[in-house]
Amino acid sequence: TATVPGANEAPVISNAKITNVSRSGYTVTCTVTDDNAVDRVLMPTWSENNGQDDLIWYTANRTGNTYTIEVKTSNHKNDSGKYHTDIYAYDSEGKVSKVELTATVPG
């Protein structure tokens, strides 16, 4: 594979994981890098109960190349069970990458 100087690549999402799962929520973290500049990282989240009726688009907090959100079940009708969090990383030139994660919140 040849690299073309000046060619824009989509952001790279790595180390995406869900931790600290409890009845009150969970933490989502990932590393995002880009050949230019990361513009923003959004993490839409919803519980599987009743579909996307509780969908929230969280803007991730940045520390260096690490992006984090705290999902609180109180923001999602206090649902337990399966949750979906997608990670969308956008760069300054409009390219986007996506990773999908799931967590099971105890009842």
Short descriptors:
single chain; 107 residues; mainly beta; Immunoglobulin-like; four-stranded antiparallel β-sheet; 8 strands; GBS Bsp-like repeat-containing protein; GBS_Bsp-like
Description:
By secondary structure, this protein is an all-beta fold. The protein has a single domain, classed as Sandwich (Immunoglobulin-like), CATH 2.60.40. The protein has no helices and eight strands. The protein has strands at 12-22, 25-33, 38-47, 56-59, 61-63, 66-72, 81-91, 96-105. The strands form two sheets. A four-stranded antiparallel beta sheet has the order 1-2-6-5, with no helix packed on it. The termini are far apart.
Topology:
Layout: E1 12-22, E2 25-33, E3 38-47, E4 56-59, E5 61-63, E6 66-72, E7 81-91, E8 96-105
Antiparallel strand pairs: 1-2, 2-6, 3-4, 3-7, 5-6, 7-8
Protein name: GBS Bsp-like repeat-containing protein
Pfam family, one: GBS_Bsp-like
Domain Ig-like: 5-102
